[in-house]
Write a structure and sequence with these properties.
globular; mainly alpha
Length: 68
Amino acid sequence: MDTSLRERIRAGLRQHDLEEVRDRVLQWALPEQVDLLERLPPSERAVVYRLLPRETAFQAFVRFDTPL
């Protein structure tokens, strides 16, 4: 995952622009979403995970290498 993309997601989280974060993350394929989630700090990971649609969140969860 591109570091600048991850930083844009983190900036959106800091600015509480959750709609933008969700829209940006949903543009990516599931493996990229999982990669992002695994690289975020736990508190940010939890927020992004909760922004995902239920089925996407489930699919991401079963692919995690790190715990939520």
